[in-house]
Design goal:
Blueprint lengths: L4 E6 L4 H11 L10 E6 L5 H13 L5 E7 L2 H4 L5 E4 L11 H22 L5 E4 L4 H10 L9 E3 L2 H15 L6 E2 L2 E3 L7 E3 L4 E4 L2 E4 H5 L2 H5 L1 H7 L1 H9 L5 H16 L7 E6 L11 E9 L2 E4 L7 H26 L1
Parallel strand pairs: 1-2, 1-4, 2-3, 4-5, 5-6
Antiparallel strand pairs: 7-10, 8-9, 10-11, 12-13, 13-14
Helix pairs in contact: 1-11, 4-5, 4-12, 5-12, 6-9
Bound molecules: 1,4-dihydronicotinamide adenine dinucleotide.
The site of 1,4-dihydronicotinamide adenine dinucleotide (NAI) has 28 residues, from helix 1.
């Protein structure tokens, strides 16, 4: 029998966590034979709500869930964890400037980086979901110097899944038939959804997205805009931000990281940039990656159509600006 691993979810009393905890606890992320101890971190005013979540997890009677540790103390939450889902963040409130939001979140991710550095396993895999996810991941990594920078990633898998779903619907195939879409850059409206390397299985034959949807103009305009603006469309309809789909994407991201990608498959992940494809070095930039043995590798040698190059530069520039703003807050 495998020994249990410790997994922390922050923002554990929030709406993404409400879907995510069940997906993790039933074994969909770390394997159906991997027992788990779940650490749930939220802030002190949310402890009563969190107690309700703990009750529901117990009432799911899940065989792999060996223990649940609810806490408001980062030192407890990050102790000995192998995986960290950093979902909790300060949401943007009415009248709040972008800078105020950034400074609140820089503080949260500084504290959590320090706690990871002190208390987590040195091979902990960290996924930042809380926005601005890419920049929060840099801050967290900066305050956890004893953990390799490659272990800090940001979530663009939701955008990736949105892109697959759009192409599948347009090509009239089931969604598993669509793979290798790419989300480049920031998890923001400057992200670049790129279907030019995607593969679509149409009645058993592998074709390009252009061949499958037979509408290049759609791929270069409506497809890109729909994916970029999907988060806002969900908020407009639901009056709350994406939660079920965000939780699913977080689980997909961590499962790919722990269990690997399929042969010939790549997925999108915000990872520390080495300058590939002209992305600024050191920012957390979403690239296509393959994963084996728990290590991600940026897919090299893809030919980037001129059409996407300006957009790639713009999203890279936005990430550099965000990083500069975050560093200014840190130094202030
Ligand atoms: P929510 O507001 O329902 O839950 C957030 C939870 O985090 C709350 O319970 C809050 O008390 C907690 N929290 C705040 N500060 C904390 C701290 N310092 N430590 C621990 N917990 C803390 O929000 P929701 O809908 O669950 O979303 C969470 C985050 O995920 C937001 O920042 C949202 O923008 C982001 N998001 C990111 C996506 C992505 O694709 N990267 C997609 C969807 C949401």
């Amino acid at each position: 029998d495998k020994q249990p691993i410790r997994v922390v979810v922050t923002g554990a009393a929030g709406q993404i966590a409400y879907s995510l905890l069940y997906i993790i606890a039933k074994g969909d992320v770390f394997g159906r034979d991997q027992p788990l101890i779940l650490h749930l971190l939220d802030i002190p005013p949310m402890m009563e709500v969190l107690e309700g979540v703990v009750m529901e997890l117990a009432d799911c009677a899940l065989p792999l869930l060996r223990q649940v540790v609810p806490t408001a103390d980062p030192a407890v939450a990050f102790n000995d964890v192998s995986a960290a889902f950093l979902v909790g963040a300060m949401p943007r409130k009415q009248g709040m400037e972008r800078k105020d939001l950034l400074s609140a979140n820089v503080k949260i991710f500084k504290v959590q980086g320090e706690a990871l550095d002190k208390h987590a396993r040195k091979d902990v895999k960290v996924l930042v979901v809380g926005n601005p996810a890419n920049t929060n991941a840099i801050v967290c990594s900066k305050y956890a110097p004893s953990i390799p920078a490659e272990n800090f990633t940001a979530m663009t898998r939701l955008d990736h899944n949105r892109a697959r779903a759009q192409i599948a619907a347009r090509a009239n195939v089931p969604v598993p038939c669509v793979s290798n879409v790419i989300i480049w850059g920031n998890h923001s409206s400057t992200q670049v959804p790129d279907a030019s390397h995607a593969k679509v299985n149409v009645n058993g034959k592998m074709v390009s997205a252009s061949e499958a949807v037979k509408d290049e103009a759609w791929l270069r305009k409506q497809f890109i805009e729909t994916v970029q603006k999907r988060g806002a469309a969900v908020i407009a309809a639901r009056k709350m931000s994406s939660a079920m789909s965000a939780a699913t994407a977080a689980a997909d991201h961590m499962r790919s990281w722990f269990l690997g990608t399929d042969p010939d498959e790549f997925v999108s992940m915000g990872v520390v940039s080495d300058g590939s494809y002209g992305a600024p070095k050191g920012v957390v930039f979403s690239f296509p990656v393959t994963i084996s043995n728990g290590q991600w590798k940026i897919v090299q040698g893809l030919k980037i159509d001129d059409f996407y190059l300006d957009m790639l530069a713009a999203t890279g520039k936005e990430l550099e600006e965000e990083r500069a703003e975050a560093m200014a807050v840190i130094q202030a």
